[in-house]
Amino acid sequence: MTEATIPDASERDEQTVGKPQLEKKVSMSCRNVDVFYGEKQAIFDVSLDIGKHEVLAMIGPSGCGKSTFLRCLNRMNDTIDICRVLGSLRLDDEDIYDPKMDVELLRARVGMVFQKPNPFPKSIYENVAYGARIHGLTRDKTELDEIVENSLARAGLWEEVKDRLDDVGTGLSGGQQQRLCIARAIAINPEVILMDEPCSALDPIATATVEELIDELRQRYTIVIVTHSMQQAARVSQRTAYFHMGKLIEVDKTDRIFTNPGHELTEAYITGRFG
Amino acid sequence: MSKLQKAAIKRRDIREAVEQSLRARKRRSWRFRLVGLVAVLTGLLLLAIMFTSIASKGYSAFERTEVLLDIDLEEAVIDPEKTRSEEVLMRADYTGLIKTSLRKLFPQVKKRKQKRALYRLVSTGAGDQLRDRVLQDPSIIGSRVSVWLIADDDLDQYYKHGDSQSRLKDYQLQWVAQLNADQRLRTAFNSTFFTAGDSREPELAGIRGALTGSFFVILITLGLSLPLGVSAAIYLEEFAPRNRWTDLIEVNINNLAAVPSIVFGLLGLAVFINFMGLPRSAPLVGGLVLTLMTLPTIIIASRAALKSVPPSIREAALGMGASKTQMVFQHVLPLAMPGMLTGTIIGMAQALGETAPLLMIGMVAFIADVPTGPLDSATVLPVQIYLWADSPERAFMERTSAAILVLLAFLVLMNLLAIWLRRKFERRW
Ligand SMILES: Nc1ncnc2c1ncn2[C@@H]1O[C@H](COP(=O)(O)OP(=O)(O)OP(=O)(O)O)[C@@H](O)[C@H]1O
Ligand SMILES: [Mg+2]
Which of A8, B230, B242, B285 is most buried per CB count within 10 Å? Predict the structure, then answer.
């Protein structure tokens, strides 16, 4: 388990193993994506399709660019001044990086749940109602109540908080906060939900709740989840993508990746030889 | 020696070494705490000395000496035509009535010079006091009333502080002794100090004018510098691109915060008075000058408050599809509010105590009238203190201290307000 056993990926210039591209029911498609932080390149020529109603897990060692790639999908990278994204990223055949594209609309369609729960320091109700309010989804109070209740229920939080919707969201436990953030994200019915290590701050029970939730959400949404837990990837995802030093090494059906990986790096990672 | 034994010895060595260094470390931290404690105590002691010295000098200004006189309100003097019109009552010679009463009280005083000395025991403002009494209730005309009238400042000082350095003559002191024996002297709450403007006579001088002036000045300063400072901070921190120009602006703002305040006064004199032709001595100009002075403070404090809002909140808002403006106004600003308000109130406290720039724009003139608007000539509290401190009369000395007490009270109030606001708006995240 020394550094020497890690083959240097940046030296090799080969195609992604597995099936990065899908024939039908594509939600997002990325072609030849390069990402730079200033001079430093963080993502190298990644091409990948994300199918409708699937859960795609992204795994890989720390610093390999999972978060960077995920944040390209809803242009959260725009907030970093030095970050540049090249290549083509499309959501339902619309170019995400088209200058005419509204990032507000894009982010309403591609929601995000962050690694650290980050509810607004406002009431639980306001947290969930926020998206509906700013996007003008409804002017009607009862309709808004309905949206809030529905979203909280789907995030598995309604029973716990229904009597204290006016309490401040940051006063919940870590797991509850993360589910609140998920409720907030699904309240505006996005097409895609991006999750960056949503369970890294949670205990096993809260993790199980969130995983169940992801499985349910798959009926309606496309989900991309970054995780460091191989078991979690195996449990919740249909396809798994393995990143290594900014390159997409392998993408395939999850059970295939975990039983019969096509690339030696993938195998080394999932068998725990490094990571 | 076995491996285990060696390890045990090594452990003991480490333990000893740590214990030794620990002793040194503890001593150092104890010494540091002692130094800190001494520093704090010295500060508190000096503060206490300052407060007690000001308070002990100033508290007596909140009391004034009054003389009880029996006055015949002769109709022939006040209102010979029995019109009872306000105009006639206003112009009647009340001072004459007071003088008559004094002469009756001291029939032995005959010489002209001595008579004048006798009249001087009562303040020149006593006539107005009597007039107000009559205007309030004209039916007392024709009767004889006993009134407590304001004493002159020399009598006031003598009665309150004893005869050291008294300016009263020996024969005056005799009359005072007689008045005292007849129980015609007393001290009462000095309401004049809070209701009157400045005056040449210490017993008639008050801080109302200066307080009103300060109020207008602070109002204008707050009304201009809060919105300007906060919007400048928001723009610079959240929206402005980072380039050479914004760097230059930032450096300049930081430098402006360190510019001596009198320079802002010169600027105000040149721009607002000489160039724009605004009136001298007006609170409006004072407010504008102090706005210039407090803007950098507010901008710097507000930017620091904006910077301290955690990025996770910003990402959460943007991730929900909020626009940058929505993110700033709905999430960042509420969290930065306590810091911004604290900075603003500190700036206002600074402005409230500022003298130098206001001297430059002529707010140092003697103004007896209480200003009624921001364009009237006015002075402010710290300048009033400066003016009184310069006066030779002993009675002005205690008024100086009393005015300082009032100013300090306002500053303490403002700082308490700052703390209260911070507590109220502060939220966990
Ligand atoms: N804001 C940034 N500025 C400069 N470099 C960055 C920035 N964010 C990430 N990087 C670099 O980009 C590379 C990929 O980072 P990224 O955060 O995408 O990794 P990751 O796969 O999400 O890692 P982890 O599993 O630890 O979260 C790293 O080498 C990192 O140093
Ligand atoms: Mg990451």
Answer: B285
Contact criterion met (CB below 8 Å) for A192 and A91: yes
CA-CA distances (angstroms) from residue A109 to A56, B238, B346? Answer: 17, 25, 45
d(CA A30, CA A20): 10
The span from the CA of A142 to the CA of A150, in Å, is 12
Residue A179 has pLDDT above 50, yes or no: yes
Give the span between the Cα atoms of B150 and B98, in whole angstroms.
Answer: 12
- Please check whether residue B331 touches A, CB under 8 A: yes
CA distances from B167 to B117, B123, B173, B387, B394 (A): 12, 15, 10, 22, 10
Kindly report, residue by residue over B82-93, the tens digit of the pLDDT.
888 888 888 888
pLDDT tens digits, B321-347: 999 999 999 999 989 988 898 899 989
Give the separation between CA A41 and CA A202, rounded to whole angstroms. 32
Give A106's contacts in chain B (Cβ within 8 Å).
Answer: 321
- Residues making up chain B, counted from first to last: 429
Q: How confident is the model at residue B29, as a pLDDT?
A: 95
Instruction: Give the alpha-carbon dihedral of A259, A261, A267, A269, to 10 degrees.
Output: -90
* Cα B137 from Cα B154, distance rounded (Å): 31
Task: Report the alpha-carbon distance of residue B399 to residue B192 in Å, rounded.
Answer: 12
Q: Which two tokens stand for residue A273?
A: 């030889």
Residues in A 143-172 with any Cβ partner in B closer than 8 A:
168, 170-171
The terminus-to-terminus CA distance of chain B in angstroms comes to 58
Q: Which residue in B160, B193, B165 sits closest to B176, CA to CA? A: B160
A65 Ramachandran zone, left/alpha/beta (phi>0; psi -120 to 50)? left
**Checking DSSP bridges between strand A110-113 and strand A192-196, what pairing results, if any?**
parallel
Tell me, using a 6 A CB cutoff, whether residue A120 lines ligand 1: no
Q: How far apart are CA A168 and CA A8, in angstroms?
A: 48
Q: Rounded CA gap, A129 and A188, in Å?
A: 9
**Token pair belonging to A11:** 């030296």
Residue B69 identity (one-letter amino acid) = L
Distance CA A187, CA A139 (A): 15
B339 close to A128: Cβ distance less than 8 angstroms = no
Residue nearest to atom 28 of ligand 1 (CA): A63
Q: Of A94, A53, A86, A74, whose CA–CA distance to A219 is shortest? A: A53
Other beta carbons within 10 angstroms of residue A106's beta carbon come to 21
- The amino acid that residue B407 corresponds to is L
Asked if the interface predicted TM-score (ipTM) of this complex is over 0.90, the answer is no
Euclidean distance between CA atoms B124 and B136, whole angstroms = 20
**Whole-angstrom Cα distance, residue A40 to residue B8?**
50
Local confidence band at B10 (pLDDT 50, 70, 90 cut-offs) = confident
Rounded to whole angstroms, how far apart are CA atoms B269 and B157? 40
Question: Which CATH number does A3-7+15-270 carry?
Answer: 3.40.50.300
Which residues, listed in sequence order, are joined to residue A168 by a DSSP beta bridge? Answer: A123
